[in-house]
């Protein structure tokens, strides 16, 4: 059931809705499009349409009616009574897809949290059997109704999941601190669902992350190490896709996962170049990035699925300062991936030190470290036996090595010489 209204901010895409239902495994019996500018408080749609929908449900023997909109708890209950079958709104549908896709323990916890918080607003039925999760007997307080028991059990479970996810968040932050100490930059793939992030991730890292032409194929974040010329190792993260009007409960529940994006040194915004509504999808991704505090991070736009377009070659488009701004690639066919690596290396390594260092013999250990990093382009020697190293490496890495030896970095940078 799709409702067409005049408010463009609340507008949903009927084609995307059908794709969501297909991704959830639903077998579509019929699609109903209703034009209504003023939603009804009781049913969202008019009572006449409800009767018409009831007849369609009986005729098609449908077991479930899905609305491409957010329903209030009372609207959902009223519709279930009138249609005599289960009713699901857009949020419930997305939650169901997430529940199917979750693979890791963390992902399952995040989905359960979002589902329980969604359910808590709809918990009004007299008997929901939630007490069976805890055994029931002995848990009910004196004079406590079944509804109060269910609500209390929900609160207890939600608190338990939040505590577990807080531990996960701490572990992720510890891992990120370790990477920062090692000065390994992190790059996070973000984008609208089904834009091709996982296919691009696999192509860049030679991994085998699950990728499919369906919405929310990737739910659990995956990290891989990637070697880039002039930069060295970077950590590439594949994250959950965004969607218009992504339920706020999901953004909250997946905050631990989405922090991989909000703490990245660079975001690769993967865009489906073949999608007719790509501009609206870009807006939605930027809106979610704003919610998680990642909208100010450096970003490179990656226009993917170039193989579906005619007359456009793989290329890097630059801004007025010459910085890479947009790269056109085909992750599926491997077109333009070398250009993407080049653009990422430029953006991460824009603060490169390129010059000659004069290291006296007593700093032999420091000399060895430069060689270990692969930063030495050429080595010669001066009259006193010191090493003249032509090096190329990130300035952050250079500062780290110098400060370890107790040397003054500012003097070194000015003179490009260590004595």
Radius of gyration: 27 Å
* Low confidence ranges: 125-142, 412-419
Shape: elongated
With strands numbered from the N-terminus, the spatial order across the biggest sheet is 6-7-5-8-9-11-10
Number of spatially distinct domains: 3
Strand content: 15-25%
Instruction: Give helix % range.
Output: 40-55%
Assembly form of the protein: single chain
Which structural class is indicated by helix and strand composition? alpha/beta
Major sheet description = 7 strands, mixed
What's the N-to-C terminus distance?
A: 76 Å
Write down the overall mean pLDDT.
Answer: 79
Sequence of secondary-structure elements: EHEHEHEHHHEHEEHHEHEEEHEHEEHH
CATH class of the largest domain: Alpha Beta
CATH architecture group name of the largest domain? 3-Layer(aba) Sandwich
CATH topological fold name of the largest domain: Rossmann fold
Q: What is the CATH homology-level superfamily of the largest domain? A: P-loop containing nucleotide triphosphate hydrolases
Contiguous helical run count: 14
Q: Using DSSP, what is the number of strands? A: 14
GO molecular function: GTP binding; GTPase activity; guanosine tetraphosphate binding; metal ion binding; ribosome binding
InterPro entries: EFG_III/V, G_HFLX_dom, GTP-bd, GTP-bd_M, GTPase_HflX, GTPase_HflX_N, GTPase_HflX_N_sf, P-loop_NTPase
Subunit structure: Monomer. Associates with the 50S ribosomal subunit.
Cofactor: Mg(2+)
